[in-house]
Amino acid sequence: MYIPDFQFHRPATVQDACRLLTESEDAAPLAGGTDLLVEMKQGGRRHRDIVSLRAIPQLRAIEADERALFIGAGVTHNDVKASPAVREIFPAIADAAATIGTDQIRNVGTIGGNLCTGASCSDMAPILIALGAEVEISGIGSTRVLPLEEFFVSHRATRLQRGELMTNIIVRRHGDARVSWYEKFGMRNAAAISVASAAVTLTVDAGICSEARIVIGAVAPTPKFSAGASSALTGQPIASMTEGSPLLEQAGAAAAADSLPIDDLRGSSDYRRTVIQVLTKRAVLRALERLPR
Amino acid sequence: MKHLISIEVNGRPYEVAVKPSLTLVNLLRDELRLIGTKKGCGLGDCGACTVLLDGKPVNSCLVLAVEADGRSVQTIEGLSKGEELHPIQRAFVEKGAIQCGYCTPGMIMRTKALLDENPEPDHEEIVRALNGNLCRCTGYTKIFESVEAASHYLRGETPPEIEYQPQKSAMDLSVVGKRLAKKDAPDKATGRAIYTDDIMLPNMIYGKLLLSTVPHALIKRIDTSRAKALPGVHAVLTGADVPDITWGTSPPRYDENILAQKKVRYVGDPIAAVAADDEETCYEALKLIDVEYEELPSVFDPMAAMADGAPRLFDDKYENNINTRVDHHFGDIDRGFAEADYVREERFVGNRTYQNPMEPHCSIAEWDREGRVTVHTSTQVVHYVHHQLARIFGLPLGSIRIIMTNVGGGFGAKAATSPLEILSIILAKQTGRPVKMRYTRKEMYLYNRGRHKQYIDLKIGVKNDGTITAVKQKVVLEGGAYSSFGIVTTYYAGSMLPTLYKMPNYKYDGFRVNTNLPPSGAFRGHGCPHPRFAFESLLSMIADDIGMDHIDIRLKNAMEPETHTINDLDIHSCEFTSCLETVKRKSGWAEKKGKLPPGRGIGIGCGGFVSGAGYPIYRSQFPHSNAIVKVLEDGSKAVLLTGEADIGQGSDTVLAQAAAEAMGISFDRMSVISADSDITPIGFGAYSSRVTLMGGNASKMAGDDVRTQLFEIASEMLGVGPERLVAKENRIFDCENSEKFIPWEKAAAEFFSKKGPLVGTGYYSPPEGLGGSYKGAAVGTSPAYSFSAAVCEVEVDLETGKVNVLNFWDASDCGTAINPMAVEGQVEGAIVMGMSETLFEDQRFDANGRLVNPDLHNYLIATSSDAPAIESTIVDSYEPNGPFGAKEIGEGSTLPVLGALANAIADATGVRIRELPITPEKILNALREKKNGGS
Question: pTM higher than 0.80, yes or no?
Answer without folding.
Answer: yes
